[in-house]
């Protein structure tokens, strides 16, 4: 069994990471507080312990990645998370982004298509601290019709297009933050659902995500 320890050194490095995110333009105090409160090194292999607070993505199981802290902060800030928001996340991965949302008081529904990663959530060390995260094995393009509508939807993989079923599952006035493919990189978009079912679109910075793929992978 791995021993999880959040030392003063970890806390100090985390504080520095938060300062860096501020310098890079993150202003939402609730996002910064959440990142300051969550031991990111717990979400990585212990081999990354010393570098877990660098502002970079790292490999996790099933050839996937834990997003760069700046990317997590950026997407979360765009999502304007409020306490008790019902949030659908596509791409559970390491559960780090889900934990940031849960720490901010959201009810999180997170979907992962890689069985190997979905199964890891059974060992999720914060289960009792964040009972507001619900895990699903499935294809994010389908969303979760049974639990719709959602106040907010966040996609943490590179979407080839805006999935229509996810737009349907968004509340009127709800927000979707989604990186959409644009050649090499993805453009971060924020969509706002209108009363007539259409969306308005705002475009932000470019990022680089692992691809959003269709179907489930049971291996
Ligand atoms: N939010 C994660 C980021 C993981 S990377 C974190 O904080 O660590 C993106 C994840 O999206 C990968 O785990 C990948 O398997 C998953 N993914 C890709 N396409 C998907 C889809 N259609 N449905 C659900 N998950 C998907």
UniProtKB/TrEMBL annotation:
An example Gene Ontology molecular-function term: protein-L-isoaspartate (D-aspartate) O-methyltransferase activity
Catalytic activity annotation: [protein]-L-isoaspartate + S-adenosyl-L-methionine = [protein]-L-isoaspartate alpha-methyl ester + S-adenosyl-L-homocysteine
Taxonomic superkingdom: Bacteria
Entry-linked PROSITE patterns: PCMT
Catalytic residues in the record: 67
Top enzyme category: transferase
Keywords on record: Cytoplasm, Methyltransferase, S-adenosyl-L-methionine, Transferase
Subcellular location(s) of the protein: Cytoplasm
Presence of keyword S-adenosyl-L-methionine: yes
GO biological process, one term: methylation
Coiled coil: none
Stored SUPFAM superfamilies: S-adenosyl-L-methionine-dependent methyltransferases (SSF53335)
The EC number(s) this enzyme carries: 2.1.1.77
Pfam families in the cross-refs: PCMT
Keyword NAD appears in the UniProt entry: no
Function: Catalyzes the methyl esterification of L-isoaspartyl residues in peptides and proteins that result from spontaneous decomposition of normal L-aspartyl and L-asparaginyl residues. It plays a role in the repair and/or degradation of damaged proteins.
Sequence similarity: Belongs to the methyltransferase superfamily. L-isoaspartyl/D-aspartyl protein methyltransferase family.
Cross-referenced HAMAP family: PIMT
Annotated protein name in UniProt: Protein-L-isoaspartate O-methyltransferase
Annotated gene: pcm
